[in-house]
Amino acid sequence: MSQHKDHPLAAQRQLADLIGKDRFAMLTEPGTGELLESRPMTLLEFDAQGLLWFFCRRQADARPHPVNLAFSDEVHSTFVSIAGRAEQVDDRERIHALWTAAARPWFPDGPDSPDLALLKIVPLKVEYWDAPDSRVVRGLALAASILSGSPVGLGEHGVLSSVRSEPAPR
C-alpha cells in the first residue's frame, strides 16, 4: 500500500483521474439506530478546493455528519473510497449553475424545487485500488495465486492525503 503526501493539487488530479468519468457513487451515512444506510448519488462537481457536490433532498436536521462515498469502475478495475463529512448547503445560485435536466425526475419543480438542496462532501481520507491490467491478465494472476498458494500483485492500493486545497483569498 502506498501513502501519498502530495501537494493538494496533485492529489486532486489523481483523485479526478481515479474517479474519471464515473459520476455515480454509493453514499453511506448514519441511518436509524446503529445502522448505516446507502443510496446511489450522481456527482455534479469536484471543485478546485477538492469538495464533491451532489443534489439532495433538504433535511430538517442539517448538521454535518460523517459519510463515505464509494466509486467503482469495473471496466478499468478502479475502486475509490472517500471518507468525509457531509454538509447540506442552501445556495440557489449554485443549484442553478449545477442544474441538469437529469435531476428533474427527483425534483420536478426544477432548480427552484423547495425540497432541493446541495450536499457538499468534504473528503478527509481517500483510499483507492487500481489494477491497470486487463481482466484476462488479472484473472490469470488470480488463478496463479490460487494454484501457487502465494499472494500476487493485482494492482495498486494507496491513500491520498491532503486532497483539499484552501480557497483562494478573495
UniProtKB/TrEMBL annotation:
It holds the Pfam family Pyrid_ox_like. InterPro entries: Split_barrel_FMN-bd (IPR012349), Stress-Dev_Protein (IPR052917), YdaG_split_barrel_FMN-bd (IPR038725). Signal peptide: none annotated. Residues 12-150 form the General stress protein FMN-binding split barrel domain. PANTHER family: PROTEIN BLI-3. This is General stress protein 26. It comes from Sphaerotilus sulfidivorans.
